[in-house]
Amino acid sequence: MALDTHLRRWSTMLLLFALAGLLFVRTVMDQMGWYIHPRYQVLLYICAGVLFVLAVMCAVGVVTLPRYATRLLLIPVLLGLAVPPRPLGADALVQQSPTLNRVAQRTREAPLPDVQTTHTWTLYDWAVVASIDPAMVIDKRADVEGFVVQNPALNVPDGQFMVARYVLNCCTADAGGVGMRVAWSNGKSLPNDKWVRVQGTVQTITIDGIEHPLLVADSVRAIEVPNRPYLTP
Question: Residue ranges per domain, the chain?
Fold first, then answer.
């Protein structure tokens, strides 16, 4: 009986250390930013610290957790090790196609990004302007980064593809997609979820009676996934 209690205490301690270390490392590597807004990172560090302290208290026998605690702790540790972290991608965006760019909708009275600096705009900025008057940015230069979306559900014709990102307010549960159509002859050769930097000039295209920006690309260059792939305006 004493041996069983001893083993359970030490196994619980090791799992607490593992969970604290996993949470700390993933936060330091910005991988937790793929799930929650960066403003909450301090809470993750606090949580990792609490788990570490609890592990030490278990090790010295100050705290004894219930029998089922070991099994409960094993679940997040195994999931954290077995499931590689990854940000939301093209598949989730297609599911949001009816509400694409809705997260950036503004009224005409709302302040707009400076149209003299369009080359610094993100996809969110372009979506904001598109929700008010796409014509105001015709012939403006664009330089945006995002992942490629290729899916018939978006009704993107040959010679075009969608470049998109997610806008995060709290966590991935409330993430909204913003996207922009790109005209480029080799667009269909780009795979889903490939991150690219697109430079070019903005025109407009009418779809179902609604005017949308169309980025006529001068260049499309593959890039690495950013450490923080979500936009947080």
Answer: 2-82, 90-222
Which of 140, 129, 133 lies closest to 200, judged by CA?
140
Q: How far apart are the first and last CA of the chain?
A: 57
The number of CA neighbours under 13 Å toward the Cβ of 119 is 4
What CA–CA distance (Å, rounded) separates 104 from 123? 10
CATH topology of domain 90-222: OB fold (Dihydrolipoamide Acetyltransferase, E2P) (2.40.50)
Number of Cβ within 10 Å of residue 133's Cβ equals 11
Instruction: Tell me the pLDDT tens digit for each residue of 133-160.
Output: 888 889 999 999 999 998 777 778 778 8
The residue assigned the tokens 């001068």 is 218
Amino acid occupying residue 59 = A
8 A C-beta contact, residue 29 and residue 91: no
The tokens of 161 are what?
Answer: 């593809």
Nearest to 150 by CA among 141, 137, 159, 138: 159
Cα torsion angle, 214, 220, 225, 228, sign: negative
